[in-house]
């Protein structure tokens, strides 16, 4: 061996001895095929190890980007939806809804009461009526709002609630007001902000004064505050009980004041399964513990933890409790308090009958609801505020854990596949492995001083690599092919899982608010017996969209299906059987439709719920327009019907196909079936086509303003291509019929009332 000038040259040879036949280009360990542990001199190609892992990284990165492009909407939510607040939170994304009914056991969500608010096209106004985006004070941005309490003062309703501050990450007490029975709410401000977390703000009046009793268990006591200037200024009044009580609820019953609460700091108390009672002659005390305390101490699903203030109805007292079995705040349970004395307590569960959504995460309360506050109005009817969440507790942490696990699986499989197939080596540099007799000794400058545990881990990794290299699997063998295919499939799934967990949010396709309010619409699909399989897929998918209230099926021909048995639907499905097979039936006035907005959508078009919700928002901003997803440009002399590519080439459109469009159900349907349009409807029947073109002519003829608006879907699939039942399967014949319709409609309407509009006229670029 040639002697070098190394200061450590000796028994083991120089640590940078370089044989003459090895010529390296790379200085890093493991980058050269043969001389990875030598310093560079002349030339040597990249090692198979480096190439394998580099190419793997590039490939799976492309897979992740493609999955994100396919799965995530490219359209970002508007700034008005809340930027500073409404951040992802491990405690959830709670919001608040309003319910009305004739009794506390017959409450229906506000959208079922058909309250109108034409100023924002919220007809009906829909839950949630108050969310983190409703908190408009930038000094107190909110991640979520929960624990709602009502206080009625004259004709006004005041809503007190917990708001989790996005900056301090602790609870404050906020307040909003309503003058229209809870349909719309105005944010007033922060009523109480302490140095510790506060929540569950029960507000009541006593001796002509207004008091607030929030939970302050983090401070170690139960405190009472008095209103100095209602509703925003409060002062500390006194400490009621010097214990860290959770969700304390006070109610007057049999001329005494009773307080229900949990204390999770008691020895032996079971979290979310513990309940105690106190009694006092007045709200100020002195408070005495019940003889049976704790009256409950069991599993989390027994409803021990309070879910709101007890209420009286028809002479009986009812207590609300949380079922925390599946997740914290999973659902509400209500108990009839049969016996309540200083010595005895007994309650029996009764049905609450609160409507539950089947839309999962797309519903504002799809996963849990843990608080209700009910009041009887002077009219005798009942109103309640209820909170809800679309995700379970700890969902954010679970997503990160799943994403991390998916990345670990991807890394492990990729490394194992490379080593077993001989494409790569898991090389551990010698300086990471504990010294052995006869090994090459590195200078202290090069050898890092690493912990012993790290050295041991590196040694095990090196041994594992050696074992795997000993089990070399030929890539072209049957075993190699099976292992490669399985590893590749699992790796691709792991990439998709990781991208979804880290970048996919909470997995919900949420609705878009307009001026802080939500609404709902009715879907209308026209079909017949030969397309039943299309319809079943259509109903299952779209019924889960957040703003869909009902799906109406216009049945033109054949034996109608059973609305309950034949469909997997999260909303009511109504079959409207028509005696005559006509495309005009699509726009027939229907008094049973309970929403202002109707979404006409062919049963062979599939798009994401987010695309549908964006279109609904665009329509609510301009409810006098026809808003849809398929633009066309009608022009030329003579007129000719062309596809979307022509409209794109001319940079504009003047017609929206009603096979996927929002419209005003009352106005548009009435105009379509007016006497003035009778001749045009006859043209539709003669050609069995063109009903969408006719609707555009009719609406454009009613206004000098803009009549149509386009929204670009992120993607849409036409399932009619998979079936022989589509009327437009013969594309050229279909276009010829529509050209003839255009000529006849232009004669009936004395010209073409359609005006051209440019693409990209919206600030949010939804019409690109």
TrEMBL record:
It is a multi-pass membrane protein. The chain crosses the membrane at residues 50-72, 400-424. It comes from the Eukaryota. Its cofactor is Mn(2+). Residues 86-389 form the Glucosamine inositolphosphorylceramide transferase 1 N-terminal domain. The keyword Manganese applies. It is found in: Membrane. One of its GO terms (cellular component) is membrane. Its main location: membrane. Residues 521-758 form the Glycosyl transferase domain. GO terms for molecular function: glycosyltransferase activity; metal ion binding. InterPro entries: Exostosin, GINT1_N, Glyco_hydro_beta-prop_sf, GT64_dom, Nucleotide-diphossugar_trans. It holds the Pfam family Glyco_transf_64. The keyword Metal-binding applies. Pathway: Sphingolipid metabolism; Lipid metabolism. Keywords: Disulfide bond, Manganese, Membrane, Metal-binding, Transferase, Transmembrane, Transmembrane helix. Belongs to the glycosyltransferase 64 family. This is Glucosamine inositolphosphorylceramide transferase 1. It comes from Ceratodon purpureus.
């Amino acid at each position: 061996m040639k002697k070098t000038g190394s200061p450590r040259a000796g028994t083991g040879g120089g640590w940078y001895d370089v044989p003459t036949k090895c010529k390296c280009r790379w200085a890093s360990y493991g980058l050269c095929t043969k001389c990875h542990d030598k310093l560079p001199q002349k030339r040597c190609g990249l090692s198979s190890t480096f190439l394998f892992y580099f190419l793997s990284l590039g490939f799976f990165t492309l897979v992740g980007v493609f999955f994100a492009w396919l799965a995530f909407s490219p359209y970002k939510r508007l700034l008005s939806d809340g930027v500073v607040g409404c951040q992802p939170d491990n405690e959830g994304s709670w919001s608040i809804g309003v319910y009305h009914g004739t009794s506390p056991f017959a409450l229906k969500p506000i959208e079922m009461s058909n309250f109108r608010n034409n100023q924002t096209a919220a007809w009906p106004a829909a839950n949630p009526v108050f969310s983190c985006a409703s908190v408009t004070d930038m000094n107190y941005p909110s991640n979520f709002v929960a624990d709602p309490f009502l206080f009625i003062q004259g004709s006004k309703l005041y809503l007190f609630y917990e708001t989790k501050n996005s900056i301090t990450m602790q609870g404050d007490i906020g307040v909003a007001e309503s003058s229209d029975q809870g349909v719309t709410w105005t944010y007033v401000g922060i009523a109480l902000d302490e140095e510790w977390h506060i929540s569950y703000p029960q507000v009541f009046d006593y001796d002509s004064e207004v008091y607030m009793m929030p939970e302050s268990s983090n401070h170690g006591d139960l405190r009472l505050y008095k209103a100095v200037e209602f509703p925003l200024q409060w002062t500390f009044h006194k400490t009621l009980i010097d214990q860290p009580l959770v969700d304390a609820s006070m109610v007057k019953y049999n001329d005494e004041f009773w307080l229900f609460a949990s204390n999770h700091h008691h020895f032996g108390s079971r979290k979310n399964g513990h309940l105690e009672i106190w009694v006092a002659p007045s709200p100020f005390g002195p408070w005495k513990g019940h003889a049976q305390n704790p009256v409950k101490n069991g599993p989390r699903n027994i409803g021990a933890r309070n879910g709101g203030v007890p209420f009286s109805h028809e002479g009986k007292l009812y207590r609300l409790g949380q079922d925390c079995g599946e997740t914290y705040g999973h659902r509400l349970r209500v108990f009839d308090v049969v016996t309540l004395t200083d010595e005895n307590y007994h309650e029996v569960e009764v049905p609450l009958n609160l409507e539950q959504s089947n839309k999962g995460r797309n519903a504002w309360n799809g996963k849990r609801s843990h608080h209700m506050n009910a009041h009887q109005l002077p009219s005798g009817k009942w109103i309640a505020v209820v909170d809800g969440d679309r995700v379970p507790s700890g969902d954010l942490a679970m997503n990160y854990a799943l994403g991390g696990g998916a990345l670990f699986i991807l890394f492990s499989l990729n490394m194992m596949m490379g080593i077993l197939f001989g494409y790569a080596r898991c090389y551990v540099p010698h300086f990471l492995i504990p010294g052995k007799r006869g090994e090459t000794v590195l200078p202290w400058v090069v050898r890092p001083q690493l912990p012993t545990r790290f050295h041991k881990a590196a040694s095990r990794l090196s041994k594992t690599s050696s074992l795997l290299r000993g089990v070399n699997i030929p890539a072209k063998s049957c075993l190699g092919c099976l292992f490669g295919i399985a590893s590749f499939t699992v790796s691709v799934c792991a990439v998709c899982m990781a991208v979804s967990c880290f970048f996919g949010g909470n997995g919900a396709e949420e609705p878009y608010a307009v001026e802080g309010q939500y609404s709902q619409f009715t879907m209308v699909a026209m079909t017949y017996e030969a397309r039943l399989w299309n319809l079943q897929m259509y109903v299952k998918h779209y019924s889960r969209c957040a703003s869909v209230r009902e799906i109406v099926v216009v049945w033109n021909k054949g034996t109608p299906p059973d609305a309950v048995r034949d469909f997997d639907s999260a909303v009511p499905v109504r079959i409207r059987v028509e005696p005559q097979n006509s495309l005009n039936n699509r726009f027939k006035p229907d008094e049973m439709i309970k929403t202002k907005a109707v979404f006409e959508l062919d049963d062979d078009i599939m798009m994401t719920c987010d695309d549908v919700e964006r279109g609904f928002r665009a329509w609510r901003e301009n409810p006098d327009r026809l808003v849809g997803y398929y633009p066309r440009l009608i022009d030329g002399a003579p007129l000719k019907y062309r596809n979307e590519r022509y409209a794109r080439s001319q940079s504009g459109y003047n017609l929206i196909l009603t096979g996927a469009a929002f419209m005003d159900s009352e106005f548009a349907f009435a105009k379509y079936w007016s006497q003035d349009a009778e001749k045009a409807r006859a043209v539709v029947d003669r050609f069995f086509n063109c009903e969408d073109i006719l609707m555009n002519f009719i609406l454009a003829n009613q206004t000098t303003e803009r009549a149509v608006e386009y929204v670009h879907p992120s993607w849409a699939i036409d399932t009619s291509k998979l079936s022989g039942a589509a009327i437009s399967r013969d594309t050229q014949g279909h276009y010829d019929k529509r050209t003839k319709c255009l000529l006849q409609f232009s004669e009936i309407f004395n010209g073409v009332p359609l005006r051209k509009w440019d693409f990209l006229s919206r600030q949010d670029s939804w019409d690109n």
